[in-house]
Every structure is written in structure tokens, then in C-alpha cells.
Amino acid sequence: MPEWMIHLVDGETLTDEHCYPHEVDSDRITSVERIIRGRTLTIKKSPLIEDFFIGTEASADFMMMGAGAGETSNRQILKKILGCYIKDSDPPIQCQFAMDPRSYNTILEFFEVHRKTPRGINARRIVGEKKMREIYQRQFVDEQHGIVKTALIKRAFQTPTGLCCELIKPKVKAEIFVRGSSILLEFGRHGENLAPE
Fold this sequence. Notes:
The protein is mainly β. The protein has one domain (4-57, 75-189). It has strands at residues 4-8, 13-15, 29-36, 39-44, 49-59, 62-63, 70-71, 76-86, 93-99, 106-112, 135-140, 143-148, 153-159, 162-167, 172-179, 182-189. The strands form three sheets. It has an eight-stranded mixed beta sheet, with no helix packed on it. The chain has a six-stranded mixed beta sheet with strand order 5-8-9-10-12-11, with no helix packed on it. The radius of gyration is 17 Å and the shape is globular. The two termini are 24 Å apart. 32% of the residues are buried.
């Protein structure tokens, strides 16, 4: 099973065997899916976003001294990330939509970066990540889905099928639709009704 799928305007689908999302012109993409242990995390293309990327965040334990010094366990994957940039944002605003593969919990985060990078995950944040973060959260069965509250977000709220937030500038709305094992992120303008196909 592929790790990600890139759906193109011409009907073609590319997978991780072909390329990374950042290697495809975002104008050719209709959506990008990240497949995580039978679940799918999807960002649908919008005229308000560009430059898709994927990333993975992992942790490892280290022993500092003694005979077993060094890495003491296998790396544990904490997040599988699907991301993009908000168009016409200055400084650039990066969007990261991530899932914890152990719990299937998802988190949506927006933050400003010094400059865009093709791989996305290595872009430096203008304001460093805080240890304590306020999250607007909603539970669906055994899964938590959340949006990290930052100064970029005007408001966050629940919808009948998920969560939504509105950015201050540019005036972009991001809505998470939870549908069984599929979690979809769509973008629109403030006040626009979004409906997954």
C-alpha cells in the first residue's frame, strides 16, 4: 500500500513510488492523500493554497553514558504530516495537517516561516514552537481532532462534520471534515460553504 497519493487534474494518480508532492507543480494537483495504517489524511487543492509537502516526526531515546551509550530504542513515529502554504501570505504561512499513527488523532496548525522551502518540513518558524499550546479540540468516537490556536487564527469552531477555523490575513477558512477513516481538509474564503465531494 502506498504512503501517499497525488491526484492530478488530468486524472492520473502518482504515489510514493513516483515522486514526492513537492516535486509536482501544485497547479496540476487536485488533492494529496497521506495513507496511515488504513486511514487517509487528505488536503484538497484550492486556489488559496500551493506547494504541497509531506513529512514525518519521530523520537528516539538515548543513553548518555556506559556500555550501551547511544540510541537505545527504535525510533517511534509521532506524526505523519501533510502540508501546504497559504497563497498571498507575507511572511509565508505554512499549514501542517498531522496524524499520530498510534492514536489516529489529528492536529491542524498554521504558522509563519522565514521563507518557503520545497520540502516544507525544514522551513524555519518565525516564532518558535511553544511548549504549552492551546488547542481547539473535538472528539469523534475514540479520536481527537484539533486546531492549534495561534495569533494567525481569528476564530475556531465546530461544524456538524468536524472543525473549522478562519485566518485573519489572508482571509482564508480551513475546514476539517471527519468521515469514518477519512479526514479531509478543505480551504475557502470566509463565509464560503465548503462541502466535500
